[in-house]
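[Discussion] Sanity-checking designs against the backbone

I'm trying to build intuition for which residues belong where. Below is a structure token string of 245 positions. I'd appreciate it if someone posts a full sequence so I can compare it with mine line by line.
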């Protein structure tokens, strides 16, 4: 369900909107697969002149979208962004402040405005604190058209979103982009929780360990989501998790 369809305020700063609030917005990018664990989006665009005009006409209160040319940002000490050729331009969706007061439909209608210039992409938007954080908005831009679906996690914690991603991956086992995205998030969490993930390279070693039940649960998920990779060695060989730690 898209809760913003039919909203007649679109890009306006409408404090009476049911979606207006104080948010700590985060963005998880499924594809193109560039920064699997960053809470920001990096989206390449085309038709730079026209895209910049649309971007410049977005209201100033929408402070989460940034427009860059690769050669102009490559040496900037405040941004670590090096993905494209010098003359390529791209958008970054990222919060630079701790919180933002915004009507969430502003994000949707901004993406709609910019979609004619965006590469195909798939990403999630959610809030990581302040107010109700059960909601999670899934965006897909394909052939310059935007679809959005709102879902709700069972828990407001980080594992609530992780559980949501895992369930979605299990329901869509042929979506290789999404499997990769979820596996990187799982690996990162488990690497942090266990401190030495290499001690538990198989489901059997995990199940016979003294780890917390929740950690064993997620290790079993790690070794079952990709049916072709049943242990840590096979996963690392295919996905190169070591590149993120």
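Best answer:
Here's mine. Compare freely.
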């Amino acid at each position: 369900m898209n809760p913003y369809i039919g909203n007649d305020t679109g890009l306006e700063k409408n404090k009476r909107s049911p979606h207006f609030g104080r948010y700590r917005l985060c963005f998880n990018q499924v594809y193109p697969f560039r920064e699997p664990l960053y809470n920001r989006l990096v989206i390449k665009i085309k038709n730079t002149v026209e895209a910049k005009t649309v971007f410049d006409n977005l209201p100033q209160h929408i402070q989460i979208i940034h427009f860059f040319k690769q050669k102009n940002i490559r040496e900037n000490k405040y941004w670590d962004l090096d993905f494209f050729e010098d003359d390529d331009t791209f958008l970054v969706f990222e919060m630079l402040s701790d919180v933002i007061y915004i009507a969430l439909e502003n994000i949707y209608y901004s993406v709609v405005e910019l979609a004619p210039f965006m590469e195909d992409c798939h990403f999630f938007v959610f809030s990581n604190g302040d107010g109700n954080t059960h909601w999670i908005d899934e965006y897909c831009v394909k052939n310059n058209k935007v679809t959005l679906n709102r879902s709700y996690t069972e828990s407001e914690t980080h594992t609530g979103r992780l559980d949501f991603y895992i369930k979605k991956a299990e329901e869509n086992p042929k979506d290789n982009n999404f499997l990769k995205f979820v596996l990187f998030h799982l690996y990162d969490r488990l690497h942090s929780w266990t401190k030495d993930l290499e001690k538990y390279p198989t489901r059997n070693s995990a199940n016979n360990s003294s780890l917390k039940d929740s950690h064993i649960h997620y290790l079993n998920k790690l070794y079952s989501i990709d049916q072709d990779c049943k242990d840590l060695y096979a996963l690392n060989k295919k996905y190169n998790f070591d590149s993120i730690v």
